[in-house]
Sequence to fold (513 residues):
Amino acid sequence: MYQFLKNLDRRWIFLSMLLAVAIPILMRIAFPEVVSKQAKMVFDAVESIPDGSNVLLSFDFDPASEGELLPMAQAFTRHCSAKGHKQYYMALWPLGSPMVDKSLDTIRAEYPDLEYGIDYMKFDYKAGGEAVIRMITTDLRGMFPLDSRGVSLDDIPMTKNIKNIQDMDLIINVSAGDPGTKQWVQFASTPFGITTVSGCTGVQAPQMYPYIPKQLAGVLGAIKAAAEYEAAIDEVYPEIAANPKAQEAKRRMGPQLVAHSLMVGLIIIGNCIYYVGRKRGDV
Amino acid sequence: MKRLVPLIIAICAGFVLIIANFIPYAQEWGSTAQEWFNILAVGAMVLGGGNLIKLHLMKVSAKNKGWGYSVVTIGCFFATLVIGLSKMGVHPNPIYPDYDWSGYYLEEGSGLWWIYEHMVVPLTSMMFAMLAFYVATAAFRAFRAKNTEATLLLVTAGIVLLGRTYAGVWLFGWLPESMEWLRFDNLTVWIMDIPNTAGTRAITIGIALGVVATSLRILLGVDRSYLGQD
Fold:
């Protein structure tokens, strides 16, 4: 047994990981979610501002992290739409713009009463990263004279009176790296006191915790927190709870449970082999 | 001259941004410097593209190992550039119907949209998904409790891995209320909130002090390494 495990072909591990992810997806295994303190803080930040508030949503991620971040981005979109917030979308990553388009598609499909230019709008991608943030904190039109459709901001009802992002009541940033949450905290949230929440990848989350609660009102770390955020929304908005498309993060918790359990199992087996080998003088 | 001019530009821009941050009267100067930065950032993208082409052309001409991949890179680069710049398959914007190139560059059905949807999305997603397989083999072969530090790391990783799933609740759901803090999901929250935050804060403060020191060296012209060797 020892020799078998010691010389185990790594392709068996690949296969077991494939099954650990595929079986729960195919069998649609789902688990109940307990809303954590962090997810509740983020939910409260969006929920506590008055209906129709100005919310800037910056989706700073690309298809590589779509699996991890798109469900929480969509949850933010649904929550803001249900609350009737004015949604201003932008992206600091070149490939973030199509991620925003997915949220706009969701609004068009699920909230047909909301109108482009009145309830939601989109700024196109601009190069510069943190410099873009610095610029729009003082002069929005200097950076974005037009929206993504080529219409002047003065001709769009919801941007007509917006001078800079200090006019926003909340910033929501979904981030997979730099530029992302750190830059929003450094150049928008901290100097101008704009309430900011973040949704980020699991790798990034530990770096964001020190900013809570003053510089960040809450952080959603990876798909688990997204599932908890969905659960928090479901408790208050039954129409979202009834929408199967709004349960994407929860659906991904099945594969996550099995894959994580497999990882823990592999670590334990690996260490058993190590100790047996050491006793036998084999290491 | 080749070093002196960039040095003066860097020092002036740095001081302008510092002054603009502390003196309200000079805020406009900061905004102007930001605009310059944005223009330079676009120029840097062109420079980056040019550099990529130069490196791969050199690799192809020298027939270095893997030169075939460089041919693919150059081909894809120019194909994407031409399709994107010419807005192939993009319809005019309904607001400006007389202008052929006024449409959205990623319009559904356009050439660039096709590249994005059918090449960029699957390829980048696949690269990220592959990590799961490599992390699994690494966990099996390399994650060893060789000493106290490694054991601590291992135990923490195990708790967080299970605490980030429903297993965290389910495994110790039988614990009485007074001992609920022992549940993996609660322990995960504690690990993230206390030891992780303390450690990250210390690292962040250390980095910030380092950045201040390095920035001062650059602003005063002591550190000129960013200008290169020649």
About this structure: Chain A touches chain B through 65 residues (CB under 8 Å). The radius of gyration of chain A is 22 Å. Chain A has a mean pLDDT of 93. The longest strand of chain A covers residues 54-60.
